[in-house]
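subagent[fold] <- orchestrator: predict structure for attached chain, return tokens only, no commentary.
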Amino acid sequence: MPAFDPDRGLEKFATDIEIACGVGEGSALVPLGTSSLILRHDFIQAQDLTAADDILSCVMHMFTASDAQEHEVSLGFIGNEAVEEGDDR
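subagent[fold] -> orchestrator:
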């Protein structure tokens, strides 16, 4: 289970989550400022959101189970362009 280490920073923490979930480094999460990680737009769009064991769920669970929130690190996404009108996923 990845743990957040303020001395290693958000980028390393994001990489640890991505590796734990079996996705490429930098493919799912992007640091935003010093206390937030955001989900990449193209990562969200590429997911099969109907699968019970999808990678997006893994990323969300890994973040939630980590100690990042104790360090006031948040996870989110920007905008609602990830799911476009008419998208059947």
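orchestrator: received. Logging for downstream: The beta strands are 29-32, 36-39, 74-76. The CA atoms of residues 15 and 26 lie 7 Å apart.
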